[in-house]
Amino acid sequence: MTTATRPETATAVRRDRDARKALTFKQKLSRFDVKASPYFYVAPFFVLFGLVGLFPLIYTFVVSLNKWNLLTGPGEWVGFGNYVAELQDPFFWNSLFNTVSIFLLSAIPQLIAAVFIAAVLDQNIRAKTFWRMSVLLPYVVTPVAVTLIFSSAFDEKYGLINNMLQAVGLDPVMWKTETFPAHVAIATMVNWRWTGYNALILLAAMQAVPRDIHESASLDGAGSFRRFFSITLPSIRPTMIFVIITATIGGLQIFTEPKLFNPSSAVPGGPQRQYQTTVLYLWDMAFNRQNFGKASAIAWMLFLLIVLFGLLNFLISRRIASTEARLHTKRTAKRLARSRAADAAAGGGSGSADPDAPTAEGARTLVAASEEKNL
User: Fold this and answer.
1) If we measure between CA atoms, which residue out of 114, 119, 261 comes closest to residue 194?
2) Would the pTM of this model clear 0.85, i.e. be above it?
3) Phi then psi dihedrals of residue 266, to 5 deg
4) Mean pLDDT to the nearest integer, 137-145
């Protein structure tokens, strides 16, 4: 069997080689284009990513292993000494606390407001285009202009917010001195700028949900709130995950708002560093203290933190999806069990069994198909 196969294989290889030799240059060029063109189409992305993404990332890691001064350049090799030093620095942990606090105060209200605005814009209202463009206007304004306007509004002495509070008999709030009010003020800037942007993304996902499902649920007696929570939100789950991950990345990299919130402060992030975020602390370490080694170590630790938050969001969303699938499977099994019991009772009362009644094997098949559809 083996001796018969080898000559046939050699003959096939020889025949294929002869066929390639018989091809004209134009045919060879056409075959090469079919095989190689997909790689040429995707190559620019990977080349640009390698130049502006991957290479700086690797180079930053190399810098973090050295004592690297802004003016003198590379110095002594210290290994992971910069990481150990930063993990023992209270300023680093203070910046990390400020970053997470501002992120939570901005991301959670922002996503809730974005879902609400998207749900309102998804209704049959007048001047849809006008309202959709209106919610996008804050995103068009540059972050520097937004920060300067809000910095003036949250001024402790002559700001608009404190003047309004005093007008109703309340005490002024130390927006730029105390920690929590400063975090609320900075989170307000972030929410004002990004809520409309996220709302339009969620609106696009809501409009992709088939209207037939809503009409069927409405005919079955489901109200608008029930349809929203049972149909709309589960249908836009992938888009919600995308919005949450992008909001997480942007929230943990916040820089412009805390940097320009109090321009008169000599210390970036407030006199007591009460709203100094990790990126702002990184900038201070690199350009004020001129220690690029520690700044690179801070950048890598922030990168790992963002990856950790992204994985956490992914695992939570996956767990929610699997839980919903299990609940749907249980509900389907209960409905099939009730249907079989009703059919059995009807068959027992009439003295004859229905030959079309669902069997146990058919019930299991329906449950499996339902579970596969939801997964």
Assistant:
1) 114
2) no
3) -75, -30
4) 85
Model confidence at 294, in pLDDT bands (50, 70, 90)? very high
CA angle centred on 203, ends 199 and 204, rounded to 5°: 125
DSSP string, 301-321: HHHHHHHHHHHHHHHHHHHHH
pLDDT of 71 above 50: yes
Cα dist from 332 to 95, 155, 323, whole Å: 50, 58, 14
Half-sphere exposure of 156 toward its Cβ, with a 13 Å CA cutoff?
A: 11
CB 122 within 8 A of CB 255: no
Burial 172-184 (b: 16+ CB within 10 A, else e): ebebbebbebbbb
Q: Which residue has the tokens 């009362």?
A: 349
Angle (CA) 203 121 130, round 5°? 110
**Whether the Cβ atoms of residue 281 and residue 302 lie closer than 8 Å to each other:** no
Do the beta carbons of residue 277 and residue 190 sit within 8 Å?
no
Are the C-beta atoms of 121 and 199 separated by less than 8 Å? yes
Spatial distance between the Cα atoms of 192 and 150, rounded to a whole number of angstroms: 10
d(CA 32, CA 336): 57
User: What is d(CA 187, CA 191) in angstroms, rounded to the nearest whole number?
Assistant: 6
Please compute, for residue 328, the number of CA atoms within 13 A of its CA located in the half-sphere on the CB side: 18
Token pair, residue 223, equals: 């109200």
Token match 């919903």: residue? 324
Tokens of 311: 């994985």
Residues 6+ apart with CB under 8 A from 171: 165
pLDDT digits (tens, 9 = 90+) for 18-36: 666 666 777 777 777 788 8
Q: With contact defined as beta carbons under 8 Å apart, do 191 and 117 qualify?
A: no
Using an 8 Å Cβ cutoff, are 306 and 249 in contact?
yes
pLDDT value at residue 202:
92
Q: What is the DSSP letter of 74?
A: E
All residues at 6 or more sequence positions from 255 whose CB lies less than 8 Å from its CB, including other chains = 277, 279, 280, 283
Rounded to an integer, what distance in angstroms lies between the CA atom of residue 35 and that of residue 97? 52
What is d(CA 172, CA 338) in angstroms, rounded to the nearest whole number? 63
Nearest Cα to Cα of residue 102 among 299, 261, 298, 275? 275
